[in-house]
Amino acid sequence: MDRFKGNLASYRLQLLMPAFFEAPAVDGMLRVERGAVRRHFFFQRGYLVGESSSEATEHLGQVLARLRILDAERSAVAFEAAEAAGVPFGTFVVERGLVARARLLEAMEHKAREALFDCYGWESGEVEFRPGLPPLGRAVELQLGLKELHRDALARLLEWRVFWNLFPGPGTTFGVYREFAVETVAAAEEQLLQLAEKGATLSELLAASPEGPLHGARWVLRLYRRGALTPRKPRGPKVGDETELADLLTLARGLVDGGRYEEAVAVAAQVLERAPVPEAHTLYREAEVRLTVALAEEVLALDGRLYFEPLPRPAPPSLTADDLYLYTKLRGTRTVREALRNTAMGELAAYRALKRLMEAGVAKLMPDTGAPRRRAKTEPFGIPIVVR
């Protein structure tokens, strides 16, 4: 591919990206810029091998802190030392033993994925491709398949489209109905409920998430589906939708009565994507609670027995960006249940992601010897660390 430069209004990333991984794969640097944010993505043989960003919140040190791999204070000290030594920050923290190389790669890959996915949503700004790669020196290289990144980015775009079709706009405010929240809400949900009670807008709720707007949107959507957050000026159902919504409600009710809770959750969510229908909220809450109870025993059986193999590079193509994010979260969480309850994708989606990690062989179970198990923290290389 020759060098080119254009505007994102005409050359959106979802249209451009296949050209970089379809045969023959292209080597080079892609610059995407909008306002004060400038990002560079480095491609080689169909893989993303490097990424940089001018956005302060995307600094690798902050990403390491958000993922609980390296605390913020030590990260800041290490950054200053790396700058003084003239060594890339990632290389420095690995060479000094502050972060294991595998964990650094997890953070770098998460950082690169989220930056690229964000650019897929840009409708203005500049895009430029330059063939050939600059020398990467001592930098730690990534190996993310562009085909898999493109697949996950399109899924993210669809997720955002559904979200913004549901709410009137960024200035939407919400009524709060705590009686419809689950008995024990996650810390992120509690923060959103408190902000909404103070009159925060939807854009402010999304900005409050330390893990980024997507995670904030997922928490908001979960609270909305339960009926704990309701838009003050909701979009109503479209003309002609009433009959279809009634049919979906009947179906959801039958699924709950039949014990098919996972399907009931999905159908109730379909109704709630059209309008905040009280009966759909009720069915969603009931199905979600029953499904969580049904999963609780299976999840409890994993605690103290789950361990992780190092993630192969490149990662198995069957794993999505959410699966890989959960992999990192699980490695830094005391219990499996805690990790699944505190991820924005939802407990059911997180459980499915965990199953895919197990099918891919990167999450494994130690044999059950029948002996009583103490609470344990999973350790990436198979040795349980007992929490006394």
UniProtKB/TrEMBL annotation:
InterPro entries: PatA-like_N, T2SS_E_N_sf. It comes from Archangium gephyra. This is Uncharacterized protein DUF4388. Pfam families: DUF4388 (PF14332). Residues 22-161 form the PatA-like N-terminal domain.
